[in-house]
Amino acid sequence: MKKLLFTPGPVMMSKKVLKIGSTQPMYFRNGEFSKIMFECKKLILKLLNAPNGSDVVFIGGSGTLGMEATLINIIEKNQKASIINGGGFGERFAKICKQKSINFSEIKLRLDENINFDTIDKNCKALFTNAHETTIGRAYDLKSIGEFCKKNKMLFCVDAISAFMADEIDMTKQQIDAIIISSNKGLALPPGLCIIILSKNYIENLIPCDSFYMDFKNYLNDIKRGQTPFTPPICIIYQLLERLREIDKKGILYFNKKASNLAKYFRNHIKDLPLKLYSKFPSNAMSAVEITNQESAFEFVKKFEKLYNVTLTPSGGNLKEKLIRVGHLGNLSKKDMKFLIECLNEYFKGKK
Amino acid sequence: MKKLLFTPGPVMMSKKVLKIGSTQPMYFRNGEFSKIMFECKKLILKLLNAPNGSDVVFIGGSGTLGMEATLINIIEKNQKASIINGGGFGERFAKICKQKSINFSEIKLRLDENINFDTIDKNCKALFTNAHETTIGRAYDLKSIGEFCKKNKMLFCVDAISAFMADEIDMTKQQIDAIIISSNKGLALPPGLCIIILSKNYIENLIPCDSFYMDFKNYLNDIKRGQTPFTPPICIIYQLLERLREIDKKGILYFNKKASNLAKYFRNHIKDLPLKLYSKFPSNAMSAVEITNQESAFEFVKKFEKLYNVTLTPSGGNLKEKLIRVGHLGNLSKKDMKFLIECLNEYFKGKK
Fold it and tell me: Cβ–Cβ of A10/B234 closer than 8 Å?
């Protein structure tokens, strides 16, 4: 029996996309590959409802590389970044700033604490937030943050790595200037490719980048002819094209709805189990649940995988023993979710 | 008929390794994945004859990311890098330094000009060179550079991206402190993974890194338990393990010899064609040949691909019209090389 992944990444891939992973990567400095890149770019801009003048950076590496690159291409030493830090991934933006000696000012949020916009430092060039703080499973209201940024003339940069495909991410409606996504979450591809979508406003505000590999100017220049400055993860790009066509065909709302339905089903069926949804503002991408019967979440996840061949994940840091994270992304069906619920029932109540 | 790649990367992959590209990537923050990483690390250290105390960084991204990371983890603002610049890829080290405001001093080499060690700035912390300047197909004598570095107490850092597997790369014999390789050249895997092998001496000289994603300290810390700080390109790692086992079984000398034989065969059979080996010090990885019949190399490569379904590559910059690069890396057989020679004969002389 194949192992089922209810993880926030990597996630279950479709057979068709998996198969493309076996394609011999071809030489890419030619029109054939440029055509693939152009189509990927067009489809991504469409899926995110990117306003005119937006453009796309395709860069080999993980989502964290994208977070760093999105910071260092826009905030100069004498400027400042504003950061919403509601957990480990918000904190990551702050850690990057510290390591790069970039000035920043952050607001730290306790679980489910509302963003008090009055406390945000308005003397910043750009605001950085996660769409979904994946360590605790909390989704932010991007529209209201976007309005705040617009009003205060700050660029709005969103790590949508785990939210894309599950929650609504709409560059126009939410007034976003930079969106970071990675291949191995909602796109349900292997890890290795990071994609950053930039608004005209972000592009016009680019600064001299102090990294050679992460310099957006070179990527934006080369994508004009469907190329990248350095060898991209070619096989993942082949898979990306197939996946984007599939998403485009059904429409992104279909996938948002699918994740939402799986999330609702899961949350409705754990009510009499010792599992309690952690945040009141969950993303459709994932349910972070507290284990309330004194078991260690970390040990539970290991035991559960052995018993049922189903992978869930704990959280990190001091939530490692407390939270179980159950993903709703990727090629999962309602049948898979039913199976998970049956296993959880058997585990906790000794019955299927 | 499948297209044959005689490119310096990506290169022809074996069926077995290609097939692994279709594996569903599994959750990786566990002992199962750590086991894979440990075996990869052990085999890489063995293949490069790395001295005791050496360690390995696995990082998602292209070889250029590895070049930048190897520079910025060792050269502080008040220190200096020495660079051997014999073409576009040597120049890349210099460009990275410029963009990062790292002090450097370079020696520029004309085609086949010997390295005059007296002209190298000895007041540098580390020396950076390519093993094989891939733009012109020139291999350097790493052993003599290693001796020079040792004598002058400079760390010796080698981009072996295109030379690994084709030419001898031996960390002990050549006294190398850092080797940069990438997945899509001699390893014959899809692009997306960069591997950097570091000596004890390099590791002891690490500086505070100003990039979050490229900070070697975190990678070296996490690899102790078979992990990486950020999601690695999992599917390529699966393929890497299979490939390393295959290389280990036959021994790396088998593969060096294979590339050497293909290179010799090719070079022996173009003698009466309007193709002339460019450098007197070619690598086994590739033959860069000048086209001597006034044709544009760039146009030739395009025409040749259409006629024979065989991919060769031009060079870049001002050599674009002049040089054709013919790779000898990856899953190519003597039969493939014979076929190439037949096609070249037909193209230039109208006969097979």
Answer: yes
pLDDT, tens digit (0-9, with 9 covering 90-100), for B278-322: 999 999 999 999 999 999 999 999 999 999 999 999 998 889 999
CA distance B296 to chain A (A): 16
Backbone angles phi, psi at B158, to 5 degrees: -125, 120
**Residue B274, pLDDT score:** 97
Nearest one of A308, A275, A255, A326 to A7, comparing CA atoms: A326
Tell which CATH classification among 3.40.50.1820, 3.40.1550.10, 3.90.1150.10, 3.10.129.10 matches the domain A4-10+252-349. Answer: 3.90.1150.10
Give the 3-state secondary structure percentages of chain B, helix then strand then coil, rounded to 5.
Answer: 40, 20, 45
Distance CA A192, CA A212 (A): 19
Q: Collect all residues of chain B within an 8 Å Cβ-Cβ radius of residue A21.
A: 21-23, 235
* Sequence letter at residue A142: L
CB contact under 8 A, B62 and A232: yes
Nearest Cα residue to A154 out of A131, A122, A184: A122
Residues A230 and A213: beta-carbon distance below 8 Å: yes
3-class SS of residue A322 = coil
Determine the Cα–Cα distance for residues B88 and B319; give it in Å rounded to an integer: 10
User: Where are chain A's structural domains?
Assistant: 4-10+252-349, 23-250
The residue count of chain B comes to: 352
- Give, in words, the CATH class of B23-250: alpha beta
Residue in this structure with the two tokens 């290179």, named with its chain if needed: B263
ipTM reported for the complex, 2 dp: 0.97
How many Cβ pairs closer than 8 A exist between chain A and B?
Answer: 173
pTM of the complete model? 0.97
Nearest C-alpha neighbor of B80 from the set B143, B125, B147, B112: B125
* Residue B138 marked in a binding site: no
